[in-house]
Design goal:
Radius of gyration of chain B: 47 Å
Largest interface: A-B, 88 and 98 residues
CATH architecture of one domain in chain B: 2-Layer Sandwich
Strand content of chain B: 15-25%
Shape of chain B: rod-shaped
Distance between the termini of chain B: 64 Å
CATH class of the largest domain in chain A: Alpha Beta
CATH topology of one domain in chain B: BirA Bifunctional Protein, domain 2
CATH superfamily of one domain in chain B: Bira Bifunctional Protein, Domain 2
Number of strands of chain A: 29
Shape of chain A: elongated
Helix content of chain A: 25-40%
Structural class of chain A: alpha+beta
Largest sheet of chain A: 7 strands, mixed
CATH class of one domain in chain B: Alpha Beta
Strand order of the largest sheet of chain A: 13-12-11-8-5-16-17
CATH superfamily of the largest domain in chain A: Phenylalanyl-trna Synthetase, Chain B, domain 3
Distance between the termini of chain A: 45 Å
Oligomer: heterodimer
Largest sheet of chain B: 8 strands, mixed
CATH architecture of the largest domain in chain A: 3-Layer(bba) Sandwich
Chain lengths: 552, 500
């Protein structure tokens, strides 16, 4: 989740309050405090609230909660130059990155801290709602350099300009191949022969979305006027993103100017739109869901504390105004949560006077618990391994092979790649880890194994005994004991060939003419593969086959 | 050097009888000592069968052979001639055959002779001393009587010869085949001597108890704090123990348990929970997709349309939806379930609009790089409450009760965000041990976009948490990997911790 760091020195410029208050109350708006010192606080915010990516964004709700400011903020936008500040979209971009929205923000005081924050904010938007720049990407530019109209068009891969983080001209091809940002985000343009480019009247490259900006329009602490572009594949999100940026810059004191996009498909439209949405809620729904008994006034007050607005009230219905920077309101329940936040989560009292029901366990749990008790009684230590393992453990080291195993895609940790097909190899792995401990060692596990014909999983019990004097008899005695306790009479062990075990000391367990599992003494070759130097006898039972009466 | 020392020196095997002999104690006493020595692994006991000669019933009754009895009377007789009838009257305990046999032996040995005067038969005493042969015989018989059993194998040739003769006389001797107990010396032999010579009872043995050998003797006091060997009990895994605790709390609250598959459809794991198909959590970077087969069959085909529409435009849920084109193919992909909410949402659909409380505890998976903070698989608990009056404060009530029962008495609730709940919240608990508040788990009320396509208009409370964190707190672990490493060095030494 994205994190924003707020220096208390900087905070003091925006709010007349001791930072200790901020520390105390900020989490009640629905953000996490990741770290706090005397100098700064690190705040983790949820991806549904991208508007919390700046100090000013967080302060909006915070001030509402502290009753310092309430209701919605009015966004003024100067439309006098909208025809001038225009972007012409060429239809060729429609196949690559079809949508664009822009804004102009003037007279902003960009100090080092704010500039850093804006760049981080941009990156958080890229990663979050932008889905790693695929859905939207943002370019910040020095407005004063740009000669309008700007063109949004496509170019060939040999088109050259000087990108940020480079001193020399690079072709699109080279940027994608060698520039760090090209390497990181080039996948978005995979299979494309024409590349999107944002270029001004004089041919200065503003940006090559979604990869990198041109160096000409670089933003520094001396920049006073900003031009911002948002491009992407989701028109609605492109418009919302420019709104979020506009609201943020506005609240930082910038003057917003409307820009015009001339789109061959959509037509002419102006951005940022900064439109207020509306949604209707019912007072009874609010109280029922929160378990409260709030009056109309309480609810209105809570709505305004969350920096939403009330347009009208009619009976039990309230029409709520949603500011343009909010992208998370899909349903009236989203407003209800904001009411709870505005009301104050700390005031919610837990209530356990709820309805009566009878608790019960799943039958599977009951049989598993019985088996665990039996094995524990026989002196076995239970182990729990991951259901994910790898071919080396499951087969190579076991000198045994089959190919109906299930694999997962792109595991970040190679030792967890294949769903276990049996448990014994994992027991041997643990015995290897435990080989410095006193013998005899007796361990077991009950859990699921998988294969291609069994994706729902098979419940297995596996036990192993290791020690200098251990032999087949020791594990057979355990099997006999289990069979005796569960009243399973007349089972046999039919010799089989299995390369993980010593020939002549391995068999299948047959009960009621069903193959219920395997029992035997591990082959010394396998032992040495696990660097084990004591005999090990083990068994693995298909629980459902042996205890089928529990699974009806 | 004691006698015992001399006896044991240079020997690997020794019989129990020999030991009993030399120590002048009974065989049973020695056997009790041997049990103890065996336990200390100083000796190994084994047995062998031997023939023993025992006095027969006649010999026991008479106390000596007839010839000796006769000889003893004649030896001290005043005259040299004795009337046979007089002699017979003095030896009424002998039956006629034995009397005759005794006389005949003395006659053959030229100790007596017979003489007939008128009709009376006299015995004439020729000698009053025994010859060597006779003396040897009488000594041997005495030995048999005294020893109550002589091992035939140990007898010298002369005695063996003699025995052959004696055995021809029925009722005087018998042979019994008995087990002879030996020890093999396997340990430090000075220790063995020390044990054998001590008059203490070191460890109590079945023989000592049965034969009451402790009476009149002292028990050697033990060093009660001495180091002893280790035993390790069989135990459930600590995570399993924690699961039992958690489960017990849910049962106390009237929750019923649900279980579900570990390999799950994206449709259930994500789409039914209103997670948009381009949500980062659905990335291969975060979720394990099954390679082959990569697609499964959606068990609730009737839900496909409602869910598709809910994602796209909100359907009839009153929501705007996510505004994208939903793909059935994406929903059919098989994943390792990323949360147990996949199980509770299945249970919710199968239960429908009926007041109920359901929980699930099980493994969930995330495609992570494993390190001290992250695992690819961990244990999660999830609970849902279905009721027309279900509300946020009930949810707080249940969670607060849960943490209090786990031993965390201070619980706070913060607003939070999850894609499938609204309102959403995050509990945090105060952990005395570390003196800090910790955020643990997540909760909320299922969004209408989740419940309405399933035909549930009632609010459904939902909450869940990962259990590893609780376990780490319980056992002061800094590295999450320890939990599933199954190192016996750790598992065997864990102390029982209830709550925190």
């Amino acid at each position: 989740m994205p994190v924003i760091t707020i220096e208390f020195d900087r905070l003091r410029n925006y709010i007349d309050e001791d930072p200790s208050e901020f520390k105390k109350w900020i989490a009640w708006i629905g953000v996490d405090i990741e770290d706090v010192t005397d100098e700064y606080i690190k705040i983790e915010y949820n991806p549904n609230r991208p508007d919390y990516g700046t100090l000013i964004g967080i302060l909006r709700t915070y001030k509402g909660l502290k009753n310092l400011e309430r209701g919605i903020i009015k966004y003024n936008i100067n439309n006098s130059f909208s025809k001038k500040y225009s972007v012409t979209v060429k239809s060729s971009v429609k196949n690559v990155r079809p949508y664009i929205a822009t804004l102009v923000a003037k007279n902003i005081h960009l100090d080092e801290a704010l500039l850093t924050e804006l760049i981080e904010f941009q990156e958080d938007l890229h990663q979050g709602i932008g889905r790693k720049r695929r859905k939207i990407s943002i370019g910040l530019h020095n407005f004063d350099i740009i000669k309008f109209p700007v063109k949004y068009k496509t170019v060939d891969s040999d088109f050259k300009f000087i990108p940020l983080e480079s001193n020399t001209e690079m072709s699109i091809h080279d940027i994608l191949a060698y520039h760090p940002k090209g390497i990181e985000y080039g996948y978005i343009l995979e299979g494309v022969s024409q590349y999107p480019i944002l270029i001004d009247r004089e041919g200065k490259v503003l940006s090559f979305p979604p990869i990198i900006n041109g160096i000409d329009t670089i933003v520094t602490v001396d920049t006073r006027n900003l031009f911002i572009d948002v491009t992407g594949i989701d028109f609605n999100l492109v418009l919302k993103t420019i709104d979020i940026l506009a609201a943020t810059l506005h609240d930082y004191g910038a003057e917003l100017y409307l820009t015009q996009i001339n789109d061959p498909e959509v037509g002419i439209y102006n951005t940022p739109k900064l439109e207020y949405d509306e949604i209707e809620i019912d007072i009874d729904d609010v109280n029922r869901l929160l378990g409260l008994n709030l009056s109309l006034n309480d609810i209105i007050s809570s709505i305004e504390a969350s920096r939403l607005g009330v347009k009208s009230v009619s009976g039990k219905k309230i029409k709520v105004i949603i500011p343009p920077y909010r992208i998370d309101i899909l349903h009236p329940v989203d407003i209800i949560e904001d009411i709870a936040i505005g009301y104050g989560f700390w005031k919610l009292k837990p209530d356990l006077n709820i309805f009566f029901t009878i608790g019960s366990l799943d039958t599977r749990t009951i049989i598993i618990e019985e088996i665990v008790d039996t094995l524990v009684g026989l002196g076995f230590q239970e182990t729990i391994h991951s259901h994910l393992s790898n071919l080396d453990i499951l087969y190579n080291r076991m000198n045994f092979h089959e190919n109906n195993y299930l694999e997962v895609e792109h595991s970040k940790t190679p030792s967890y790649k294949v769903l276990r097909t049996w448990i014994i190899p994992q027991l041997l792995e643990s015995l290897e880890i435990s080989k410095k401990e006193e013998y005899p060692q007796k361990i077991f596990e009950i859990g699921y194994v998988f294969n291609k014909s069994n994706i729902e999983g098979e419940l297995h019990l596996a036990c192993a005994i290791a020690g200098p004097n251990v032999s087949y008899n020791d594990i057979k005695a355990v099997l006999d004991s289990i069979m005796m306790i569960y009243n399973k009479k007349g089972y046999t062990i039919n010799p089989i060939k299995h390369s993980s075990f010593i020939p002549g000391r391995v068999g299948k367990i047959y009960y009621n003419e069903t193959d219920c599992g395997v029992i035997g003494e591990i082959h010394p070759d396998v032992l040495l593969n696990f660097k084990l130097e004591v005999p090990i006898a083990c068994l693995e039972i298909d629980v459902k086959k042996l205890f089928n009466e529990y699974f009806i | 050097m004691s006698e015992l020392d001399r006896l044991l020196k240079g020997r690997k095997y020794i019989s129990v009888d020999e030991l009993a002999n030399i120590l002048n104690v009974t065989r049973d006493y020695i056997l009790s000592k041997i049990e103890e020595l065996e336990r200390l692994k100083l000796v190994k006991k084994f047995s062998k069968e031997f023939d023993y000669i025992y006095p027969g019933f006649k010999l026991k009754e008479l106390g000596s052979l007839p010839e000796e009895k006769i000889f003893n009377i004649l030896k001290s007789y005043p005259g040299n001639e004795v009337p046979l009838s007089e002699l017979r009257n003095k030896l009424t305990e002998l039956d006629e055959d034995d009397f005759k046999a005794g006389l005949s032996i003395l006659y053959n040995s030229k100790i007596i002779d017979f003489k007939k005067i008128d009709k009376t038969v006299y015995i004439k005493i020729l000698r009053r001393e025994l010859d060597q042969e006779m003396n040897f015989k009488f000594q041997f018989v005495k030995e048999v009587l005294d020893k109550e059993g002589l091992k035939i194998a140990d007898l010298d040739i002369a005695k063996k010869k003699l025995l052959d003769q004696l055995l021809k006389r029925p009722g005087f001797f018998k042979i019994r085949r008995i087990k002879d107990i030996y020890i093999e010396i396997t340990g430090d032999y000075s220790k063995i001597i020390e044990y054998l010579e001590s008059k203490w009872i070191t460890s109590l043995s079945p023989t000592i108890i049965k034969k009451r050998l402790w009476i009149g003797r002292k028990f050697k006091p033990y060093d009660l704090n001495a180091e002893v060997y280790r035993v390790y009990p069989g135990r459930a895994h600590p995570m399993h123990e924690l699961i039992r605790e958690v489960r017990e709390i849910f049962l106390a609250l009237g929750f019923r348990e649900a279980t579900g598959p570990l390999i799950e459809l994206s449709f259930i794991n994500f789409d039914m929970l209103f997670q948009p198909q381009d949500h980062p959590a659905r990335d291969m970077q975060d979720t394990f997709y099954i390679k082959e087969p990569s697609y499964g069959v959606i068990p609730y085909p009737e839900l496909i349309e409602p869910i598709k529409k809910t994602h796209e435009n909100g359907w009839i849920t009153g929501s705007k939806g996510w505004g994208y084109t939903w793909s059935l193919n994406e929903a059919k992909k098989l994943v390792l379930r990323t949360h147990t909410t996949a199980v509770t949402v299945r249970a919710l659909y199968e239960t429908g609009e009926k007041p109920d409380k359901i929980f699930c505890i099980g493994s969930v998976f995330r495609n992570e790089t494993v390190d001290y903070k992250h695992l690819v698989e961990f244990m999660q608990v999830d609970g849902i409450v279905i009721h027309p009056n279900a509300n946020l404060r009930w949810l707080l009530g249940i969670i607060e009760y849960f943490y209090k029962r786990m031993g965390y008495n201070k619980v706070k609730f913060w607003p939070s965000y999850f894609p499938y709940t609204e309102p959403s919240l995050q509990p945090s608990i105060y952990v005395d041990k570390i003196g800090k508040w910790l955020e643990l788990g997540g909760a909320g009320i299922f969004r209408p976009e989740v419940t309405l396509p399933l035909g549930v208009k009632w609010p459904v409370l939902a909450w869940g948490l990962g259990l590893e964190r609780l376990l780490m707190l319980k056992y002061d672990l800094n590295d999450i990997r320890v939990i599933y490493k199954n190192d016996l060095g750790w598992l065997r030494k864990l102390s029982v911790e209830k709550g925190v």
